[in-house]
Structure formats: structure tokens, C-alpha cells
Design brief:
Length: 289
């Protein structure tokens, strides 16, 4: 059975050593087959920060690693580099591909490059990107979990983060819902939550979920949210558990918080269902559904 570890907003250059070691311990206790890093790997896109992030990711010892660039992974103050070679540091550390993909019998994952060099914070997914991603994910085996990964959030639960929402997200979610994508993973706002996307017209019974991770290890926490990561655990073919693991203030280790059971189309007839149970009661202020 496959285990996927989703981390975001490492912001190397602002990392908390205790959080770094706690996440390494979590990866040893729950060994990931797949590691997804959904952007903002560094704080200022410096070579030393990319090098530190690369060493850290190697310590998590996943067989497959997908790393997506975020807005902080583009030089901010070095304007010639920002305009001419914005992703040179990222590519040196993690390879040329800005939209890595993974295809296995139980998973199909597509990273969608949403950071833009001419913008400081706001991300964008174009209709062409959304269509290309939808077409590839739609070809996954019937019982495979289909996942898109963005940096900026595809959905926000309330008005306070509306300005940070991914531009073009409505069209992307429409296309991905019709392609029977199950899950969109993201970060950027350092606020963890699971949220179900509205059903577009003629989408049938399929429902897509958005799962955001908080910052995994940076001191740039957003109150009241602790360090957090997501774990996807395959429990049977077509059946998964999406878990949020939190490093609470003063704690030595990450502990499991909310759990969302997921079921693929072929395993249950309707794409995903939310079972009315969790590892502990969901706090609506921290993980709105």
C-alpha cells in the first residue's frame, strides 16, 4: 500500500531546527513512497537555501519526489535573475521540469506550475494548463487516485484569503472536476484545511476535494495554525485516508489530527465520499468542510 507525504512552504532560511527533526522522525515512522513539495521551498531563492532544502528532502527518503516551485523560489531583489533566469536555482537543485508528474497503478499526480516571475505573490493557472492537466489525469486507471498539485490555493474557505486564491482556479476546478480528479493539494497561505469544491454543471455525482498544508518547518507560522503536513495512506485498492499531522506548540513530534476517508470512483460508484468520522473531531475554525 502506498503512502504519500505532502509538505509545503518549507521556506529554508527560516526553518525551525526542532520542526525539521520532528518531520524527519515522522518520515521514518511513516515512510513515504511519494513525497510532494508544493512550493516555497526557500525564503529568498538563494543557492545555500536550495542546497539545504535538497539535503533535507533527501533525508525524508521517499522513492518518488515531486517538487513544485513557489513564488518565494524566484529571486526577489535580483531583478536581472528574476526577469531572465527566474528558475535557475530551482532547476539546479531539483531538475529542469517545472511541472513534474508521477504515474503508478494506484496514483496519478500532476504538478501545475502556478508561480509567475512578473508577480510577487499571486499565482495563475491558465486554461491551457488546466486542460492539459485534466486530459492527462483523466487517462488514469479506473481505481487510481487522481491528484493535481498547485502552490497557491485553488479554494479558500472564507473571505480573509480571497486575494491569495489562485487566478484561473474556477476554470481549472471545472475542468478537473469533469476529468474526475479527486484531490488538489496546495500551500502558500500557511493555513491547513480540507474543503470540497462546488459541483460544476453536468459534473454528475463526482466531488473534488482541496487539501491545503500549512508551513511544515518554517518559523513563519500563521496564528493559530501549527506546523502541519498531510499524509495520504492507501488502505485498500481505491480506498485512502487523507490525514493532517500537526506539530503542536511545545510538542516534540507531529501527531495525527483530522482524517478524511477518500474513495475513488471505481471502488465506490461516486468519486469521493466523506465518512462522518475522524481521528478526532474536526475544528471548523481550523479545517472547514
Amino acid at each position: 500500500m502506498t503512502t504519500v507525504l505532502h509538505v509545503s512552504d518549507l521556506h529554508f532560511g527560516t526553518e525551525v531546527p526542532q520542526a525539521v527533526e520532528a518531520l524527519v522522525r515522522l518520515a521514518r515512522a511513516q515512510p513515504p513512497d511519494v513525497l510532494i513539495v508544493s512550493g516555497d521551498i526557500t525564503q529568498r531563492a538563494r543557492r545555500s537555501q536550495f542546497d539545504a532544502a535538497q539535503r533535507f528532502i533527501e533525508r525524508l527518503a521517499a522513492a518518488h519526489v515531486l517538487v513544485l516551485a513557489g513564488n518565494h523560489d524566484i529571486p526577489l531583489f535580483d531583478l536581472p535573475r528574476r526577469l531572465l533566469t527566474p528558475y535557475a536555482g530551482f532547476r539546479r537543485a531539483f531538475g529542469e521540469e517545472l511541472e513534474p508528474r508521477l504515474d503508478t497503478p494506484s496514483l496519478r499526480i500532476a504538478a501545475v506550475h502556478t508561480a509567475r516571475a512578473w508577480r510577487h505573490v499571486v499565482g495563475h493557472v491558465t486554461p491551457a494548463q488546466a486542460e492539459r492537466t485534466a486530459a492527462w489525469l483523466a487517462e488514469a486507471p479506473p481505481r487510481a487516485l487522481r491528484i493535481a498539485v498547485t502552490h497557491q490555493p485553488a479554494l479558500v474557505p472564507d473571505g480573509q484569503d480571497t486575494a491569495q486564491r489562485l487566478r484561473g482556479a474556477d476554470e481549472a476546478l471545472r475542468q478537473w472536476s469533469h476529468a474526475r480528479v479527486h484531490l488538489v493539494l496546495g500551500g502558500h497561505i500557511h493555513r491547513p484545511y480540507f474543503q470540497q469544491a462546488p459541483a460544476p454543471p453536468n459534473a454528475g455525482p463526482h466531488r473534488l476535494w482541496v487539501a491545503q498544508a500549512g508551513t511544515a518547518i518554517s518559523h513563519r507560522l500563521r496564528a493559530p495554525y501549527p506546523h502541519s503536513v498531510n499524509l495520504l495512506r492507501e488502505v485498500a485498492l481505491g480506498h485512502w485516508l487523507l490525514q493532517r499531522w500537526n506539530l503542536e506548540p511545545g510538542a516534540a513530534d507531529f501527531t495525527c489530527g483530522d482524517t478524511l476517508p477518500l474513495t475513488t470512483d471505481a471502488a465506490r460508484g461516486d468519486a469521493l465520499s466523506y465518512a462522518a468520522h475522524a481521528a478526532r473531531p474536526t475544528d471548523p475554525s481550523r479545517a472547514p468542510f
